């Protein structure tokens, strides 16, 4: 395996299976950290709508109010195009929710039958958000284009009126029992509450033969019999029994399985995940770039780096200002003496060409502007 060649390759995606609520794909030519970032972003950073406030008018069921409110919160709601179709309430001009940043759902059901009645997500009805007083004002200077970006089922419980989808059970009621509830759904991400996660499961596997020894298998007698290979092993070459361990090998192919709860389609989850990752890194690049414009004092007594880095020892050990300004403060010395910051910076930033997203991101020029300046005096950082 020619690692140099591997590094030069563009990232690849091969979709193996795509269904309504799941996608299975192989991500190639990226490193483990990138694959894991994508997994985490898809789980925790993609906005959806979910019921966030519940007003219970009548509850004569056997379940307490809190119990029902929690179950309602977990009901997946159709959130397609959530980025554009609804605002975060915190970004909205209203005081506590309006038609641009919230959806209203009602549940109004009672049992008059001798049989037990299942109250499910199919009984939740979306109603137009009532016009509040504080909404009158902003509406004039605020066209509220969000509304036009909503699909017909936006905010509706997933699978409502779909004979192929089983609804979510909320409570069971008997004759004479009643539920009358008003719910307000808002936009959020899973970092705030797990109910906002569009994914029920995201996983990836790599190195099915465990050539890299990232896993230690426990076994009794026969490791091969007790640990059958996964399906993904077919994608890779089996190691020879006498193959020596390659210390320099790195995982290169990741077998992803993304399963959604239906609030977003699997394509949307993956695409939004990548876009979100891009945004995060872009704001990091921007932050570093603007940091370079700060008025950082000229290194005079060799203590400048202490102020900037708070590490101190990177500069403290043998940093001789005139020499540093010319040549000796290299990435290698910074990385070795200050692993916390210097190491990360040198690994992450000095390899723009190897980075999977180096090409289309504009990361490299920004990084150069802020970090890789040829003149260390310009900003106090030279990688
Ligand atoms: Zn609002």
Automatic annotation (TrEMBL):
Keywords: DNA-directed RNA polymerase, Nucleus, Transcription. It is found in: Nucleus. Signal peptide: none annotated. One of its GO terms (cellular component) is RNA polymerase II, core complex. SUPFAM superfamilies: Insert subdomain of RNA polymerase alpha subunit, RBP11-like subunits of RNA polymerase. InterPro entries: DNA-dir_RNA_pol_30-40kDasu_CS (IPR001514), DNA-dir_RNA_pol_insert (IPR011262), DNA-dir_RNA_pol_RpoA/D/Rpb3 (IPR011263), RBP11-like (IPR036603), RNAP_Rpo3/Rpb3/RPAC1 (IPR022842), RNApol_insert_sf (IPR036643), Rpo3/RPB3_RNA_Pol_subunit (IPR050518). Residues 363-376 have a biased composition (Low complexity). Residues 22-287 form the DNA-directed RNA polymerase RpoA/D/Rpb3-type domain. Pfam families: RNA_pol_A_bac, RNA_pol_L. One of its GO terms (biological process) is transcription by RNA polymerase II. Belongs to the archaeal Rpo3/eukaryotic RPB3 RNA polymerase subunit family. PANTHER family: DNA-DIRECTED RNA POLYMERASE, DNA-DIRECTED RNA POLYMERASE II SUBUNIT RPB3. This is DNA-directed RNA polymerase II subunit RPB3. It comes from Agrocybe pediades.
